[in-house]
Amino acid sequence: MTTNAHQAMWEQLNLDIPAHDGLLAVLGKFYGDIYLSQSGRLKGMEYLDFVLSEVHGLRIKELQDAKASGRKIVGTFCVFVPEELTLAADAVHVGLCSGAEAGFAEAEQLVPRNTCALIKSFIGFKLARLCPFTESCDLVIGETTCDGKKKAYEAFAEHVPLEVLEVPQRKTAADRLLWKSEVLRYKQLLEELTGNQITAEKLQAAIQTVNAKRRALQRLNALRQADPAPISGRDALLINQVAFYDDPIRFTASINALCDQIGERVGKKEGVAPAGTPRLLLSGCPMAVPNWKLPYIVESSGAVIVGEESCIGSRNTRDLVSEEAATLDEMIDALVDRYLKIDCACFTPNQERQDNVRAMVKDLQADGVIHYSLLFCQPYEYEAIKIEKTLSQDGTPMLSIATDYSMEDVEQLKTRVEAFVEMIK
Amino acid sequence: MPLVGGLDVGSRSIELVLHDGDRVVDQRKTATTFDPLRQARALLAGVRLDRLVATGYGRGLVENAGLCAAVETITEIKAYGLGAAALCPEARTVLDVGGQDTKAIALAAGGKILKFEMNDRCAAGTGKFLEHLATVFQIPLAEFGAYALEGKEQLTINSMCTVFAETEAVSLMARGRDPHDIALGLHASIVKRTTAMLARVGLASPVLFAGGVANNPCVVRLLAAALGTPLCIPEQPEMVGAHGAAVHGCRTGV
Ligand code: SF4
Ligand code: SF4
């Protein structure tokens, strides 16, 4: 497809064309500096490069084609929205990314200034007409996780077709009942939106599709236990990011092929950095495309990232849905159970996350943890304090960083990260 | 004996320590200005170094500037840790209040860093804060601490932000409060901020106080009182980072 055809499509989606061109130019430059400049990259990453270069092009075209054939597009902001149900209704499930500082001035007319960058970004992208994914959505699903998102969705609902799922804040039997009723409501919403009945057969197939995707990502994570690290943290983050908007079946096949290559590399004891390079685990808030600031700083400071304990990372892939269920009811229960295992900082108490971070440090042989919270993100800033305490019991050093999407603190962050790397060397 | 230079390129000043492996042979200092590289060159004029270790905010600038055949960079955190260990081996905490940033470092024996904290993007509670407010008081910076020590009643300044603190100070003046008392309050607000940061790294004594602000007698007195422990203050507290860089250069060999 030519750029002209893309252009026509973007016009049809009512994007602000000059501003959108500007965004793509910045994205391309950023990607070149942070990704394409890496040496010793895996051949399989070409697929990811291609998908990212066509993120607003071919993938959007696919969405338009799907729409033309009668399929619906559902946009989400949180790993709590069960993708299995979306797929079982034959709709397309996309994560809306919100990782860039765009449209903030517009967004600040709807949300307070001291709102996290992720929220400001998804509102800004909509108000500034910059995101072809948002514009393609037939339905957007919000959730009652943090207060910022809850209140932001009230304002957002005036701009997109939106439904909010109620995610509980604790994990008692009563909370499970509430969550189950919400999962069932989501099923019904999808059936009304698409006109398709979600049957046991369809749901089972969808569960298998999403499990296969998560298994491929689990496999990738397991391969990263090797020293020397066979893949950069930046590339692994990109893979986790692309997982949210690419076609799941094609994506799974590509990641499995990539994992084969990584396996060979591990066998030959080859890596992206020499053995013994300080290994760091990133933990905290999700990093959405194109928020690659911190991983880039870390990997330019003599360390390598070996894991992402985050929603765009292990929080999305750790648990599978049981495939034992035979009836639709049992499958719904299996979904409810799997999703309630998510250890998001919005829950209280949230001991699971402490245990999971600890386990990841051990499995990945990480020398330290960089905890990342977005400024004004209360849940993760609170948990940063707890995690530091937990890790100190094991003698694992942690650096706590709170930042946003702007570049003004890059020099400061570099110094802190470099000092942390010097400290653990 | 090989000659090693430790160069600390800070946001306000640049310090150089020359070390021959046994002892410091010379120390020099200049302002950073808008052309730090030229200033660094001037500072190094006539010195034949075997090795240069750069630290501080502008270390990256120096790295590839050809100032010396062997150049290495380390962060200011590491440099202050090493400098503190060399100057006061028993120190377990380092506080550095420099021109535009503040850092607190927990140290193990030998200068190994256990934990550190740095102020975020803004210059609240740093040397810049004092410099700005001294101008408002029309008092030379070097005399501002002694001036504040003449205060009898320590007034409360609530804001840590330089601009808002100035507004508070001006309105206290307009209400006829004694300027010495106001100055004392401003110094106390810096101390409050730094003690909070020290607490976050665990505050083990003895504490070494480094950076230009350690030359201010009022901050020193208030800080010692707030921490309840005497402070170890090197003769030239602003040289600690450059000293540490030089120590690092001597250790890694030429
Ligand atoms: S951090 Fe929590 S609220 Fe955010 S995407 Fe993850 S699960 Fe959802
Ligand atoms: S980063 Fe934090 S504040 Fe922002 S949406 Fe996620 S949980 Fe909420």
Relevant terms:
heterodimer, A: alpha/beta, Rossmann fold, four-stranded parallel β-sheet, 8 strands, 54% helix, globular, B: 254 residues, alpha/beta, Nucleotidyltransferase, domain 5, 2 domains, five-stranded mixed β-sheet, 10 strands, binds iron/sulfur cluster
C-alpha-based Rg of chain B, rounded: 19 Å
Number of continuous helical runs of chain B: 9
Distance between the termini of chain A: 49 Å
Query: Can you count the beta strands of chain A?
Result: 8
* Helical content band of chain B: 40-55%
User: By CATH's scheme, which homologous superfamily of the largest domain in chain B applies?
Assistant: ATPase, nucleotide binding domain
Shape of chain A: globular
Describe the sheet with the most strands of chain B.
5 strands, mixed
Low-confidence stretches of chain B: none
| Total strand segments of chain B | 10
Instruction: Give the strand order, joined by hyphens, for the main sheet of chain B.
Output: 3-2-1-4-5
Terminal CA distance of chain B = 10 Å
β-sheet strand percentage of chain A:
5-15%
